[in-house]
Amino acid sequence: MTPRKLIFVITIALASCARKWEPFSTRPEQDRSIIFPLSTGSGFVDIKAQEKTYELDGEVLRALMIVANDLFPPDTSKLDLSCTARQQAHTFRFTRREDIIFVYVDEDLAYCGRTTHAMDSGAKYAISKDGRILRRVIDGIDEDDHIWSLKTPDGGTVIVATESGATPALEDLDKPDSGVLKIITEPVNMPGVMIIEPIEGFEPIEEGPGNVPGSSMFPYPFDPKTKWQWRDGKLVAVPQEPPPAPSPDLGGSTPDAGWDAGSPGDGGMESLSAPPSPPDAGAAAP
Amino acid sequence: MKNFGPFDSYTDALLAACPLLLSKPHATVGHLRDSNPELAHRTATEYCAWLYYTPEHKYEMSMLSDRPKPDDLVTGKKSCLLPTFVDDSRYAPGELKYIFALHNHPFGTPLSSIDYHFIEEMANHHDWEVETTKGRIRLSIIAFFSHSKSPGAPTCDGFYQYIPATREVMMWVQTQGRWKKTKHESLRWLDDRTYRFERIQ
Q1: Domain residue spans in chain A?
Q2: What kind and span of H or E run contains A63?
Q3: How high is the ipTM of this complex?
Q4: Could B180 and A194 be called an inter-chain contact, meaning their C-beta atoms sit closer than 8 Å?
Q5: Smallest Cβ distance to B197: which of A79, A118, A195?
């Protein structure tokens, strides 16, 4: 190997090593240690630019620009793009947590005169204050975190985020291989968050009478007071206490008014003495 | 859609639509996820269609939609714009009954939060429950997925489904021709933008 080639190889090797020391050297959309906030923080502000005056710091502005340009590349004015493919046809919601700016992108239906969304038309980003994409979740492409509410032995609940859709076990939370990315302590009131409350004893069900691909098993109309459970291969109804009225304000003045404050399902598993109701399984069968 | 059905059973129509959507160009790109994620992201394409019930008591599928080509190539999003109504010249408006809003998820991810919003919005225009000669069927959104490593002949490995009338969320998986429901949850809306699931069983 010639000295010049040797220098080249060493340079490449050092560059590779140096890159590994960077805190976020993984592909941005694969950094699953970044958890998107489940709380709006101290409030949710819907900015109406015509009504007030706002000042935005440069780091947030750059984060918004990075997101907008990543989803909708600039300088496309000569292309014949539809209304929905343009930056200005979207809303950009952001919240800053220390050195990370989280940005959520949604369609602005009114801008294009529409009344319904396109499927999988949302996206969210985590941008570092120095302008790097730490994580990107685009609908239909990237898997989001799974958020769970688990019952604790003392009757409380703990909310955790996991990478996979497999149900986490409460007793495994402290183990390194539990799959739990984070234990959530903030109130959950960020729009668009989906929380799963597992019920023990789940087993996959083979197709059969009244349970074919595409079929519905619950009765209609939907009754929010009824909780459902499978017992002995049958779907049975478990009566519930009426759920508390949700806060009309998504967090502006009552940030702790999330769903967890007395969830509709609390105590449901203890009231199994009610007679099972017919599951209405055949209603939607072919 | 020509060369599709018509079917006497909605399940038969659904299970025929699954491999058809997934066999469209770049409808499933999971095989590229590890080897070339950039290419997978750039090429992934979503297709969508309505499965509907006709006055002849048959199940048929609309033409497939995807995003207009310039949009699809330029933007980073992979959404699918499904028209609210199907234009089937054989029938007058209002004669068709809408059953399933079908689409594919190229990476096999679960339904997105916008997917739930979409079908709730469609429930403002269509019946939540349709009477047929063989029972009632409920409006729902479905996302097909494939785990296939062979892009030329992707398998229909399952789908996610949400039924707004009953708030049911399900996942069905196919293994060697046998279908199994592997998830059955209930979704509760807390307000117009936040909601939660409850897993059944």
Answers
A1: 26-138, 146-196, 199-286
A2: helix A58-71
A3: 0.88
A4: no
A5: A195
